[in-house]
Amino acid sequence: MENNNNGSVAVTKMDTLKNILNADSVQAQFKNALADNTGPFVASLIDLYTGDTYLQQCDPKMVVMQALKAAVLKLPINKSLGFAFIVPFSNVPQFQLGYKGYIQLALRTGQYRIINADEVYEGEYRTRNKLTGEFDLSGQQKSDIIVGYFAYIELNTGFSKTLYMTREKVMAHAQKYSKSFNQANGPWKKEFDAMAKKTVLRNLLSHYGFLSVEMTAAFENDNDVADQVQDEIKQNGNSKPMDFQDADVVNKEQVNTMDFANQTSGPGF
Fold first, then answer.
1. What pTM, to 2 d.p., does this model score?
2. From CA 121, how far away is CA 124, in angstroms rounded?
3. What is the 3-state secondary structure (H, E, C) of the chain?
4. Residue 53 above 80 pLDDT?
5. Where are the domains of the chain?
6. Bigger pLDDT: 47 or 162?
7. pLDDT over threshold 80, residue 246
8. What's the CA angle centered on 197, arms 98 and 215, to 5 degrees?
9. Euclidean distance between CA atoms 33 and 55, whole angstroms
10. What's residue 133's pLDDT?
11. pLDDT exceeds cutoff 50 at 236
12. How many whole angstroms separate alpha carbon 65 and alpha carbon 26?
């Protein structure tokens, strides 16, 4: 609460946020999604709102609504974890998934043996077989300059796929589809590499991955790429083959992948 000059008490947005979170109907929704983890999640939401002056310019009710999307997916919204974010866009909060969030949701399906996304440094990319689509990343790293990003999935059935995009192609894709790309305080400015890996991984999963109902809902609720979702719907609705011209898709490749098979639900709730 803040005191006005006339002695009356003004209700701050923080007070409004806390009042909304204390409402029985809102508490019921969080408990339905998170059960015993409701308390820690709500506390993290308050911390997030307190520490983000841009988010404080948004309607507290809308912030809570976006947080509920993360709660339903059982993903933490702590910025440092990189699973899910609530990003203000023109004073409107938007729910966005991080690349770790996509990995987490994919692992929960139990269909993936390996899933990975990483940077490719100068010197590591050697050749690409144009006929088979295979590429070789066994080169010696020459510098800390990142030239591209790749994502790799392997299902329990043995099916595997890799998607590689150069840094320039990732930027072009983000400029076309990401609402937060040009934001001075957005994730693309602060965590470019993480967002780039998300871009590559998301496109790989959406075209070739096994998608559960939960993952499909997450794709649709990721506001940062809403325009891309609409484009994909239009392409599929017209029964036209997907022509992903800004990336190289391959079946097998010589890369070191990280095996997430032994992970459980991880940092998700």
1. 0.77
2. 6
3. CEECCCCCEECCHHHHHHHHHHCHHHHHHHHHHHHHHHHHHHHHHHHHHHHCCCHHHCCHHHHHHHHHHHHHCCCCCCCCCCCEEEEEECCEEEEEECHHHHHHHHHHCCCEEEEEEEEEECCCCCEECCCCCCEECCCCCCCCCEEEEEEEEEECCCCEEEEEEEHHHHHHHHHHHCCCCCCCCCHHHHCHHHHHHHHHHHHHHHHHCCCCHHHHHHHHHCHHHHHHHHHHHHHHHCCCCCCCCCCEEECCCECCCCCCCCCCCCCCC
4. yes
5. 2-72, 102-250
6. 47
7. no
8. 45
9. 23
10. 61
11. no
12. 9
**pLDDT tens readout for residues 73-103:** 999 999 889 999 998 888 999 999 999 999 9
Asked whether 189 and 171 are in contact (CB, 8 A), the reply is no
pLDDT value of residue 190 = 85
